[in-house]
Amino acid sequence: MKGEAAGGDFIWATRGRDWGFRFLRDAGLPDPLMTYEAAFSALGEEPDCFRKQGDVVAFRMRDPKGRRDAAGRTIFHEFVLLRHLGADVVTAEDARRAVWPLVEAEYATIWGAGPSSRG
């Protein structure tokens, strides 16, 4: 998992075509699950959602390219923006603009990779 640079200010969880849900960014936290669960606790399973509490933003978005997993399910990306990355975010669109450019190219190369390549 990467936690450096801008990636140190967010948690990113998603799945790929052939691999299950996992954290691809961990905000430099030893265990991002607690922060992730706290941020998403009030959002439930809504497909597209957004919540801001202080400088912490949780949002879920559908894959912008419409990618699906091998079972045909829509792929969602879940983000928790922390510190300065979440400070100026007011809307879901702000959040998408802040973080998607940081991960878009990486995801394009890994979404179809097999499970063993995501360790």
Strand percent estimate: 15-25%
Give the helix level as a range of percent.
25-40%
Overall pLDDT metric: 87
- Count helical runs: 3
Give the number of DSSP strands.
5
Describe the structure.
It is built from 3 helices and 5 strands, in the order ββαβββαα. It is of the alpha+beta class and 119 residues long. The chain has one domain (5-111). Strand 1 and strand 2 form a beta hairpin. The chain starts with 9 loop residues before the first strand and ends in a 9-residue tail after the last helix.
Provide the fold topology.
Layout: E1 10-14, E2 22-26, H1 32-40, E3 49-53, E4 56-62, E5 76-81, H2 83-87, H3 92-110
What distinguishing features does this structure have?
disordered N terminus, single chain, alpha+beta, five-stranded antiparallel β-sheet, 5 strands, 3 helices, 119 residues, 24% strand
Summarize the entry for a quick read.
The chain is an alpha+beta fold and 119 residues long.
